[in-house]
Write a structure and sequence with these properties.
With about 500 residues, this protein is of the alpha/beta class. The protein folds into two domains: about 170 residues, Rossmann fold, CATH 3.40.50; about 280 residues, TIM Barrel (Alpha-Beta Barrel), CATH 3.20.20. It is built from 18 helices and 13 strands. A six-stranded parallel β-sheet has the order 6-9-10-11-12-13. The longest helix is centred in the first third of the chain and has 19 residues. It starts with a strand and ends in a 10-residue tail after the last helix.
Length: about 500
C-alpha cells in the first residue's frame, strides 16, 4: 500500500477530521492507494474499554495537559502496549508511507510516544503535518518554525514534515519528491486555490462511531480557507494564505454526496467562515432547498453549523438571505461577537457593529438558527465602561438562551497577543508596550492609555463575565478548564516560572 494516514489522540471525538479524508482523495486522484486509520476514535471507543476508568482518565488528562510531568511507569506501560498493538495493525498493510495528522499540540504527546515505538519497526517514510507540528501554545499556529516537527526529526523519528495545504504537497509525495516549499522548513507550501474539485473521502471510517450526538453522525466539511476580515488579533490575516472559497455548487455536491453515501444529515464546516462570499453561500443554500423540493424532503432536512461572520444590511446581507439559510438547514452559527462595545469592536477591526449583530440575531430567531458566541475579555482598549457593555449584552441576550437560539458562549482566555497577528507586528497602533523592555507578546503587554487594565484586572473581569453567564443559564463551554488555566498562569507569572510558548513536550 502506498500510504496509511493516521489521526491520533487527543482530539475531541465528535466527528472525523477532514485532513486525512482530503489526503486520501488526493492520493486516489494520483492513482495511489491509501487507508485512513483513526487512532483517536479507537482510543475513545476501544482503549477506554480495555482499561479501568481511573487509568483511562489519568492517561487522557496527561495527553491533554501542557504539563511536562510524565506518566507513571505503570500508566506508560498500559498506553504503550496499546500503541504497539495499533502499530501491528498499521504494519500489516505494508505501507510505503505513514502520514500522521497532528491536529493540535494536544496530539503531540501521543504522537511522540507513537513515533518512538513505530520508527524502529519500519522503513516506511514517516511524514507528519497539521497545525499541531508547531510549538505548544494555547492557540496552535503554523507561524514560524514548526518546533515539534523539528524536534522529532532531529531525534530521527520522522523522515519529513509538511507545512501548509495538502493539495500542494501530496501530489509531490506521489512523485517521490520530498523537498521544496512546505517540506522540512518554515515556508508554507503553495496555497491551494480550492478549484481542485475533490470530495474528501471518509469511506474507511464508520461515521456512526463518533460522538456527535446526531442520529446519523456528523461529517466535517469546509467552504473556504483564509478569511475576508482583517481582525488585528487573529493570525489568519498573515497565515491563512488569503481568502479562497469553493463555489456553492462544489459545497452542495459534497454535502449531497455525504447524505447519499453515508446517510449523514449533520455537517460541520470547520473553516474560518462559511459566508466569506455571500454569492457562493447563497448559491449553496439555494441548491440545498432545490434538492429538498426535488426529492420531496422537508426544509432543514440536512443541518449544518460552522463559523460565520456578521454583516449588516449596508453590506448586502438581506433578510431573504437569512431566510434562505434557515430553510437550507443553518443550525448553529459560531460568531466572534467578542464584546458589547462598538468602540472596542472597532479597535479590533471586526468589521461590524452591535446593530448588525442584533439585526442578524432577530432574523436568526425567525428562521430557527442558533448563535454560538465567542467572547474576548480584556482587549487592550477595553475600559470598565466597555466591559460593562459586554455584561449588558450578555444580560440582554439571555432571552435568546431561554428561547433556545443561543447554543453556547465561550469566553476563552483573556486577550493574548499571538505571533502572526497584525497587533503582534504593530503594537504601536494601539500604543502597547511590553514588560521589562520586551516586545509586547502573550499576556505581557501594557496600554499606558488604559492603565487600569492590568493582567489581574483582566482575570477578574473574565471571572465576572463567567459568573454572570452562568447565573443567566448560558451553556458555558470549557469554563472550568479555562478558569483553572488562567489561575495557574497567573500564579506562574507571579512566581516567575511562566513559559508562554513551550518549545517541546
Amino acid at each position: 500500500m502506498f500510504a496509511v494516514i493516521l489521526s491520533v489522540p487527543r482530539i475531541t471525538p465528535i466527528r472525523p477530521s477532514i485532513a486525512p479524508a482530503i489526503i486520501k482523495s488526493l492520493f486516489a486522484q494520483n492513482n495511489k492507494d491509501s487507508q485512513i486509520i483513526d487512532l483517536n476514535i479507537k482510543f475513545y471507543n476501544n482503549f477506554v474499554k480495555e482499561v479501568n476508568a481511573d487509568d483511562f482518565k489519568t492517561i487522557d488528562d496527561y495527553l491533554y495537559s501542557q504539563s511536562s510531568e510524565s506518566l507513571t511507569e505503570q500508566h506508560k506501560l498500559i498506553l504503550t502496549e496499546w500503541i504497539d498493538k495499533s502499530i501491528d495493525n498499521i504494519l500489516k498493510l505494508e505501507p510505503e508511507h505513514i502520514l500522521i495528522s497532528v491536529f493540535t499540540w494536544h496530539a503531540q504527546k501521543f504522537t511522540k510516544l507513537l513515533l518512538e515505538r513505530l520508527r524502529p519497526r519500519t522503513n516506511s517514510k514517516i511524514i507528519i503535518g497539521g497545525q499541531g507540528i508547531g510549538e505548544i501554545r494555547e492557540q496552535t499556529s503554523w507561524i514560524g518554525t514548526p518546533l515539534f516537527a523539528k524536534q522529532v526529526k532531529d531525534l530521527g523519528l520522522i523522515d519529513h514534515w509538511i507545512k501548509g495545504d495538502a493539495e500542494s504537497t501530496i501530489p509531490l509525495i506521489c512523485q517521490g519528491i520530498y523537498q521544496g516549499k512546505g517540506f522540512d522548513n518554515s515556508e508554507y507550501a503553495e496555497w491551494a486555490p480550492l478549484t481542485n474539485k475533490i470530495i474528501p473521502d471518509y469511506s474507511d471510517l464508520n461515521i456512526l462511531e463518533y460522538h456527535s450526538g446526531a442520529a446519523t453522525g456528523t461529517i466535517a466539511a469546509e467552504f473556504s480557507r483564509g478569511c475576508v476580515r482583517q481582525c488585528n488579533f487573529c493570525d489568519w490575516v498573515t497565515s491563512g494564505g488569503g481568502f479562497r472559497t469553493k463555489t456553492g455548487q462544489q459545497v452542495f455536491d459534497e454535502v449531497r454526496h455525504y447524505y447519499e453515501k453515508f446517510g449523514v444529515r449533520s455537517i460541520y464546516f470547520n473553516d474560518a467562515l462559511i459566508n466569506g462570499s455571500i454569492k457562493e453561500f447563497n448559491k449553496f443554500n439555494q441548491l440545498l432547498v432545490n434538492y429538498y423540493q426535488q426529492n420531496n424532503l422537508p426544509d432543514r432536512h440536512i443541518l449544518y453549523s460552522g463559523h460565520f461572520i456578521i454583516r449588516g444590511r449596508n453590506q448586502g446581507w438581506k433578510p431573504e438571505h437569512i431566510a434562505l439559510m434557515g430553510r437550507a438547514g443553518a443550525d448553529s452559527m459560531v460568531v466572534g461577537v467578542e464584546t458589547g462595545s462598538d468602540k472596542v469592536r472597532t479597535s479590533m477591526n471586526k468589521g461590524y457593529l452591535l446593530k448588525d449583530l442584533d439585526y442578524n440575531m432577530e432574523n436568526f430567531v425567525k428562521h430557527g438558527i442558533k448563535l454560538y458566541m465567542l467572547m474576548m475579555v480584556g482587549f487592550p482598549t477595553e475600559t470598565r465602561d466597555d466591559f460593562d457593555q459586554t455584561l449588558a449584552l450578555v444580560e440582554r441576550y439571555q432571552k435568546y438562551v431561554a428561547s433556545g437560539n443561543i447554543s453556547g458562549i465561550n469566553f476563552g482566555q483573556t486577550f493574548i497577543i499571538e505571533e502572526g497577528a497584525p497587533i503582534y507586528y504593530h503594537p504601536e497602533e494601539l500604543d502597547l508596550v511590553g514588560v521589562d523592555g520586551e516586545k509586547p507578546r502573550d499576556v505581557f503587554w501594557i496600554n499606558p492609555n488604559n492603565p487600569a487594565l492590568t493582567y489581574k484586572e483582566r482575570i477578574i473581569r473574565r471571572i465576572e463575565a463567567h459568573d454572570l453567564a452562568t447565573r443567566l443559564g448560558y451553556p458555558v463551554w470549557r469554563a472550568d478548564g479555562q478558569l483553572k488555566w488562567l489561575m495557574n498562569k497567573y500564579k506562574e507569572i507571579v512566581s516567575g516560572t511562566y513559559n508562554a510558548h513551550k518549545t517541546s513536550i
